[in-house]
Each structure stands twice: as C-alpha cells, then as structure tokens.
Amino acid sequence: xxxxxxxxxxxxxxxxxxxHFDPKMENVQHRQRxxxxxxxxxxAAVKAAFDAGADExxxxxxxxxxxxxIFEDLDPRCRIIHGRNCSGPHxxxxxxxxxxxxxLVGMHAMGETPNxxxxxxxxxxxxxxxxxxxxxxxxxxxxDYSVPTVFVxxxxxxxxxxxxxxxxxxxxxxxxxxxxxxxxxxxPARACEMIYAGxxxxxxxxxxxxxxxxxxxxxxxxxxxxxxMDLKAVLPEDVEAPTIDQAFMDFEHRMTWTCFDTSKLNGFxxx
Length: 271
Ligand SMILES: [Zn+2]
Hints:
The chain is built from 5 helices and 11 strands, in the order E-H-E-E-E-E-E-H-E-H-E-E-H-E-E-H. The protein is an alpha/beta fold and about 270 residues long.
C-alpha cells in the first residue's frame, strides 16, 4: 500500500503568522520552532500510515521554499520530496494512480475565508460553481488519479471546507481560528495524537471514502493568491483543460514566479 502525504505549515497547531514575510519581524528561532512542530505532525502521519499497513509513504514538503520539514528526524521508512516548490514537473510530484490514499497535514483555509488562520489561494472552478483551497485542490488532483483523500488536519475552517466536499474524510481540528493571526490551538503533543489516530482510521476506511473527482472539462482561475503573488500577471481569463490536474498545471506554468527554466541552473548564484 502506498500513501502520499501533502504538507503545508499554516495549519499546524501553534502556527499563527508569517513572521518571515516581514523582514523587520524575522525571527530565526521562532521559525525553527515552527519547523519542529510541523516535523512532529508529519511524523505522526507517517507512523500512522505504516501502522495502518503502508509499505511506502511519500511526503511532499510543499510550503514556500520546500525546505521546512526537518527530514533527518522523520521516520526513516518514508521518503520526502523537497526543494524549490513548483520547479518540478508537478505541484504534487510523483503522485499517480499507484497510490492508495492522499493525506493532508497542516492545511489552511482558502482566500477570503473569514476568521481563518492565514487564508490564501482561492481557486474558482467552472465560473464559481466550485471554489477550492490548496487542500481541496490537492484532493481534486488526486481524484483525477482515482486516489481518495482520507485525512486532513488544520484549523476548524479548512477541516469544515474539506469535509463539505468529502463527507467521510477523517479530520483533526488542531486549532480553532479566531482571526487571520490568532488561534486557540491544542498542545502539539495532543495534535500529534489526533493526527496519528485520524490518519490510521482514514487509511483503514479508505475504501469507503470516494476520491474527490471534478468531472472535466474544467475552467480554472485564481481569485486570491498568497501575499507575494502578482495576480495581475496571472491570466485575466480562465484556463480550460480536460481535467483539473491539467488545468492546474497549465495555470502554474503561466505564473511569473514559477516560469523559470527548470532544465538547468538558471540565474542561480551559489553564495
Ligand atoms: Zn504554506
């Protein structure tokens, strides 16, 4: 059995603000602490996957730089994808139909969600018939490969959104969001217990949980991106493609900050 774990950091218990986006608030020690919390939550998911019978667990370190998880401390049975996000061929590299389940750890709500922790990225599908967060986008892409999404952790807003789309999914609500920068979290050790139990149950119940599939062709656009995103540079019109997976990757490849030549080191100077 093969399990894919997609990760982000905004939904980790204890994480409330992007201190690293503001140079005046740069706090290396705080950041290391957040990476430790993320690593522990991911490790809880990895162990649960193996305990549920997985032979192979692949972790995608997907937030920002792609270098957040302290991977030397992860369960040595898993493998991890890291490095510059979106420089590879796919946002969810190596995900294909050979996987039995997708697990989402540390997710945040979509852009414009009131009183959610750090909400950003709101994908509009088919003119607004469906709106997707990064978490439900990952689930929809997995759905194109008939892979069910069996677990999500994060604040109460993202778990509610994903549950509205995948009613039988297991969730771990590791914090109650009070505003975009304030939450009431469970203590990290408790968050890890919740994630362990949820991932184990989700994988065990995998056959009951239908893949989240959006039938194609689809029209896709982005209404609200991360703070650094130049939305004016993104397409004024929807991208159309036969599947959500193809539409998403088409869109990604048109975004200015991912449009660099990935076949060779390009403009990168070693310090
Ligand atoms: Zn993130």
